[in-house]
Amino acid sequence: MDDKKPYHDYTVPEPRTDRTLIRRHPERAAPDRIEEFLAAGLIAHVAFVDGGEPRTIPFFYHYEAGHIYVHGSPGNGSLRNLEDGRPVAVSIAMLDALVASKTAANHSGNFRSVVVFGRCHRVSDVAKKRRVLEAATERYFPGRHAGPDYVPASDDDLTRMELIAIEIDEAQAKARSGGPMGPGDDDPNASGSAFVRPI
Of the candidates 188, 130, 168, which has an alpha carbon nearest to the alpha carbon of residue 37? Predict the structure, then answer.
């Protein structure tokens, strides 16, 4: 696979097992938006098992061509754990608005989210590290480029930094949009208040 393809030229494996089946509000499933959400998120929570104990670690990340990339110091114990090909689950969520209803049970939020299952491997090639990290920097800081805007990382910097690629095996996306849906939320004569508060 050509790992230089942008996200929209690659298709993430869609839901196919029970682990990505959406049972609560299945109408909110958005498998056709998986890559859109992966490309838009800011924080990836990576979950794995270490010594029989669960771990969940938040990372800044970069997504492209069916891989989620996370990076950090070689001294980072979590990254060392992820080098061995173990299975992981990754959760990315974006809260777009809080939704208030006139009834307690119908308070909600508008969101976009993705859950990914995959396996990790270490990236050692310095040129690939440079490409991925510069792309990640531009994603978080649009229009910012190595050279004119900041001093690029040296080869030594990149050699001393760990980059882990999570190859996606299966994923599912879910989203909610719109206003409150409780009884009376559209009735101006009903008591209480209902509104959408953008985040």
Answer: 168
